[in-house]
């Protein structure tokens, strides 16, 4: 059963629970995570929680819960839902207080949703995704998984309006990441992804893919690449908790790798699935 959680209480998803002065609603003043459960087991839960705490510290959220408290909370929520394939979203905001930009002296709010994780449309998974490139109009601290997603939403909608799955963001001619994913290219057998910086989110799926690449001995480099290099890549794929490893076969209407998912991308996805099956 899909369910929600707010400040100590499990609720149904359609229950009205948020006061108007909740700062997540008023200001987007908070951070979040999404964790995928496969067959009832979380994928890289502690890595997600470490990033959550890093995001919270970066915006000076006064959290009192420990990593272990969050771990237990998320495991309890997933168990309560009885959904073995689910996504748990967890948000922490600066709490409920009369609207004022300054930090209030109130406890943070913790909310969660547990929803069934539906596999991507089969055709997308098997034939690959079409994407667009889009200016990266976000702020300078994109390593924080902030609830403020307006530029991401606008970019994703622009992609959707163009009949595409994702928008790949470009800042000063350099590819940063997707609106809700990280980006990899393959050129002459080498897998390349932008290095971690404040300009991108340190994706957990990205981390898993890099581990798989290292284990498999595939040539690999973390370095910036331009929009032109993206368009001229042999293979392109995006990674995220919800899309896993997804081949990109067209960018701005031009085919990548002859319009078919690349061999290295397919091999990495297979290894990714092996990891999941061992959870
Ligand atoms: N988004 N970059 C951005 C901007 C993201 O929003 C995401 C994830 C990623 C990939 O991170 P990870 O592999 O840890 O999921 C990169 C999630 C899926 C979301 O907002 O729903």
Characterise this structure.
It is a single chain. This protein is of the alpha+beta class and 279 residues long. The protein folds into two domains: 114 residues, 2-Layer Sandwich (D-amino Acid Aminotransferase, Chain A, domain 1), CATH 3.30.470.10; 156 residues, D-amino Acid Aminotransferase, subunit A, domain 2 (D-amino Acid Aminotransferase, Chain A, domain 2, Alpha-Beta Barrel). Helices cover 30% and strands 29% of the residues. It contains eight helices and 15 strands. Strands 7, 8, 9, 10, 11, 12, 13, 14 and 15 form a nine-stranded mixed sheet that branches. A hairpin with a 3-residue loop joins strand 13 and strand 14. The chain is globular, with a radius of gyration of 19 Å. The mean pLDDT is 97. It binds N-(5'-phosphopyridoxyl)-D-alanine (PDD). The site of N-(5'-phosphopyridoxyl)-D-alanine has 15 residues, from helix 6 and strand 13.
Task: Write a brief structural summary.
By secondary structure, this protein is an alpha+beta fold. It contains eight helices and 15 strands.
């Amino acid at each position: 059963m899909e369910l929600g959680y707010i400040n100590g209480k499990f609720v149904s998803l359609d229950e009205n629970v948020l006061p108007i002065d909740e700062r997540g609603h008023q200001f987007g003043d908070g951070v979040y995570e999404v964790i995928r459960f496969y067959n009832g087991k979380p994928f890289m839960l502690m890595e997600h929680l470490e990033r959550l705490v890093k995001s919270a510290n970066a915006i000076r959220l006064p959290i009192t819960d420990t990593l272990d408290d969050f771990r237990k909370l998320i495991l309890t929520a997933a168990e309560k839902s009885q959904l073995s394939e689910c996504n748990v979203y967890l948000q922490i905001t600066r709490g409920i207080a009369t609207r004022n930009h300054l930090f209030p002296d109130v406890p943070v709010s913790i909310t969660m949703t547990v929803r069934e994780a539906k596999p991507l449309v089969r055709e997308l998974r098997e034939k690959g995704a079409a994407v667009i490139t889009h200016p990266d109009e976000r702020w300078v601290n994109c390593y924080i998984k902030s609830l403020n997603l307006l530029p991401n939403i606008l970019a994703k909608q622009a992609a959707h309006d163009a009949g595409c799955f994702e928008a790949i963001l470009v800042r000063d001619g350099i590819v940063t990441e997707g609106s809700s994913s990280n980006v990899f290219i393959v050129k002459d057998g080498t897998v390349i992804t932008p290095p971690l910086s404040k300009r991108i989110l340190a994706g957990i799926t990205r981390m898993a893919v890099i581990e798989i690449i290292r284990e498999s001995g595939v040539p690999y480099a973390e370095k910036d690449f331009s929009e032109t290099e993206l368009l001229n890549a042999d293979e392109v794929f995006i990674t995220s908790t919800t899309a896993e490893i997804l081949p990109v076969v067209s960018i701005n209407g031009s085919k990548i790798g002859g319009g078919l998912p690349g061999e290295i991308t397919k091999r990495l996805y297979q290894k990714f699935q092996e990891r999941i099956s061992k959870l």
